[in-house]
Amino acid sequence: MAITPDQVKELRARTGVSVMECKKALEEAEGDMEKAAVILRKKSGAAAAKKSDRSLGAGAVAAYVHAGHEVGAMVLLTCETDFVAKNEDFVRLAYDIAMHVAAADPQFVRREEVTEDDVRAARAVFEKEAADKPEEIRAKIVEGKMDAYLKERVLLAQPFIKDETKTVGALIQEAVQKFGERIEVERIARLSARG
Questions:
Q1: Is residue 182 within 8 Å of residue 56, measured between CB atoms?
Q2: What is the three-class DSSP state of 160?
Q3: How many degrees, rounded to 5, is the angle at CA 84 between CA 83 and CA 88?
Q4: How does pLDDT run across 5-32, given as a tens digit for each residue?
Q5: CATH of the domain at 166
Q6: Nearest-CA neighbor of 93 among 162, 11, 13, 24?
Q7: How many domains, the chain?
């Protein structure tokens, strides 16, 4: 099947990935736009893993204040070069993540930041809640509640507020694929006038 320039353009508009990568993905998916998008998502994860040891020397700080001025958030999104840090799409990504932080109120950026004390305390609560359930399903219930607890509190595991079909972590992986550089959320801060 011949891939048209319009198909490539549409996939590029949806994903932000290079024209050549979009064309390759469409050829591999035999013109199926959804399959091509899945192929690009898989490749973005592999690309992010390859770049994980590169040093971060640039970035952008973005702030979001919600209407009513009662909730605001700041994000430091880092990358390798000033060229990417000054890119309009990179700055917009930082802003979108700040908006997400204001709305979703994550306490941690990544899973590794969750302390063992936090995990132990949550597990104790969930074990107590599941104590009256049959023993053979009790462990599954506790693990399910732990998974949900961590997804609520870890930024990279949360569904992205503007597109809940992907996590914030997947959004970062897509940006790595798009910009060709290692990108990380370095720090987040959220302020609320409501306490």
A1: yes
A2: strand
A3: 105
A4: 888 888 888 777 778 888 888 888 888 8
A5: 3.30.479.20
A6: 162
A7: 3
Give, in degrees to the nearest 5, the angle at Cα 69 between 63 and 71.
60
* b/e map 166-186, b = 16+ CB within 10 Å: ebbbbbbbbbbbbbebbbbbe
Strands 184-192 and 71-79, bridge-based pairing = antiparallel
Phi, psi at 134, each rounded to 5°: -55, 140
Note whether 13 and 99 are same-domain residues.
no
| pLDDT recorded at residue 84 | 92
Residue 70 and residue 81 share a domain? yes
**Cα 109 to Cα 93: distance, rounded to the nearest angstrom:** 15
Do residues 12 and 33 share a domain? yes
Please give the model's pTM, rounded to 2 decimal places.
0.71
Boundaries of domain holding 135: 115-152
Tell me: do 130 and 97 sit in the same domain.
no
CATH code of the domain containing 43: 1.10.8.10
Q: What is the pLDDT of residues 72-106, one digit of tens each?
A: 999 999 999 999 999 999 999 999 999 999 999 99
